[in-house]
Amino acid sequence: MTQDNPPPQERLCRACQRRYAYPVRKSLATRFHCEACMALSPNVRKTFETFNKRIKALSAAVDKLEKELTTRRKTGGAVT
């Protein structure tokens, strides 16, 4: 009986946001981190994850505010 290996999927590293193939035989990559980030200490990976989450949240907030500002300018509303 042969062992079927699933084809690699493209995943996004939680620490560095790099795309990588997973699973790849004999790779250190996990479901959550690419091979390069797995070489880092767990504390460093956790810090990168926290920073990336915060950057995403701040970017979304800025995008929302820019959209509101554009809408106000189009409708002639007061901009404060």
Can you tell me about this structure?
Helix content is 48%, strand content 10%. With 80 residues, the protein is mainly alpha-helical. It has one domain (9-75). Strands 1-2 form a two-stranded antiparallel ribbon. β1 (9-12) and β2 (19-22) form a beta hairpin. It is elongated, with a radius of gyration of 20 Å.
- Terminal residue distance: 70 Å
Main beta sheet strand tally, sense and closure: 2 strands, antiparallel
Which overall shape is indicated by the principal axes computed on the Cα atoms?
elongated
The mean pLDDT is 91
In N-to-C order, the SSE pattern is EEHH
Q: How much helix, percentage-wise, in residues?
A: 40-55%
What key attributes describe this structure?
80 residues; mainly alpha; two-stranded antiparallel sheet; 2 helices; 2 strands
Briefly characterize the structure:
The protein is mainly alpha-helical.
Question: Topology of this structure?
Answer:
Elements lengths: L8 E4 L6 E4 L12 H4 L3 H34 L5
Antiparallel strand pairs: 1-2
